Amino acid sequence: ITDQPTPDAVVSVNSAYVNRGWGFEGRTYLVTGGGSGIGRAISLALAAAGAHVVVAGRTPDKLDETVALIGKSGSGQGLAVPADVRDPAAVDDLVAAAVERFGRIDGLVNNAAGNFVAPGIDLSPNGWRAVVDIVLNGSYYCTRAVARQLRAQGTGGSVLSVIATYAWHGHPGTVHSAAAKAGVLAMTRTLAVELAPYGIRLNCVAPGPTETEGAGAALWGTDEARAGVLATVPAGRFADPAEVADASLFLLSERSSYLTGDCLTVDGGQWLGKQVYGRTAEAPV
Ligand code: HXC
User: Fold this and answer.
1) CB 285 within 8 A of CB 228
2) Residue 109 pairs with which residues in a beta bridge?
């Protein structure tokens, strides 16, 4: 009995993990596709929590808008860096620019994506390649570059990838995106194990249908398509990007310090409620 820890000792052992902060103040995160939609929402939430945010993407105007919004409402600073994640050399330059400006990097959000609805067997090789290059290859290049920097710093850090539930259940009409997102999930689980000894955690968030211009135009561009998607969501509404950002910040933060290699689904119950597609030669959304 005397070998048992006293209640005080138990409290003392656990105290490092009780009431700790979120850990964003003064840290630096790189968000790809940060100029719009979910990427912008995550960037703004990180900056509001005190982090510096390097916003990357292909369209400079949209990046500048996000950085201006960070300037108005964030307590951290923003930096816009135009870059295409499909280019590994550009990704290395992106990470170097982040380190040059803020001195270090603490995490990455793989959010950049491309998507359109097309029957799988009618996709051109270029159509397949465009989406797989952005989603899978781009996420790998960014993860590799940031993880190398984190290893060199010896600080640990957190990588979050935005995927979709069809990474595991598939979805007619988006074979390129579903295959790429499944690859990102497998990458996350593999590197979570390889990089845990360096204090680097990797997780995914899987949003359901979210009110963003990009996904709306790519996936539910007509009123009919939108109503069809809405009918599949038990919660009866689309997500607000801020709701996805909240879950994302948890996974990036110190509050999830023992959580790695996993995926948090934020979809209003959609995938659990949508188990049967039926027989179709079309590409429903
Ligand atoms: C058939 C199409 C097509 C379409 C493009 N392609 N759109 N094929 N139907 N609607 C084909 C082109 O014909 C071309 O093939 C090839 O794809 C590459 O097209 P480009 O326009 O040259 O490429 P690029 O400029 O790099 O554009 C990439 C893109 C584009 C993915 C096609 O849509 C894009 O950049 N999107 C970024 C924004 C985005 O999509 N956001 C939505 C993410 S939402 P050929 O053979 O003609 O050369 C998301 C949510 C998922 O992912 C989860 C939901 C629940």
Assistant:
1) yes
2) 31, 160
Q: How far is CA 35 from CA 2, 75, 102, 140, in A?
A: 59, 18, 20, 20
The type of residue at 266 is V
Rg, C-alpha atoms of the chain:
20
What domains lie within the chain, and their CATH numbers? 24-268 (3.40.50.720)
pLDDT per residue, tens digit, the chain (285 aa), is: 556 655 565 555 566 777 778 999 999 999 999 999 999 999 999 999 999 999 999 999 999 999 999 999 879 999 999 999 999 999 999 999 999 999 999 999 999 999 999 999 999 999 999 999 999 999 999 999 999 999 999 999 999 999 999 999 999 999 999 999 999 999 999 999 999 999 999 999 999 999 998 888 888 989 999 999 999 998 999 999 999 999 999 999 999 999 999 999 999 999 988 754 544 445 455
Task: Please give the distance, rounded to the nearest whole angstrom, from the Cα atom of residue 177 to the centre of ligand 1.
Answer: 10
Query: Is the CB of residue 130 below 6 angstroms from any atom belonging to ligand 1?
Result: yes
> How buried is residue 232: exposed, middle or buried, by Cβ count under 10 Å (0-12/13-18/19+)?
middle
Q: Is 166 a catalytic residue?
A: yes
| Ligand 1 atom nearest residue 217's Cα | 42
What pTM value is reported for the model? 0.92
From the CB of 115, is ligand 1 less than 6 Å away?
yes
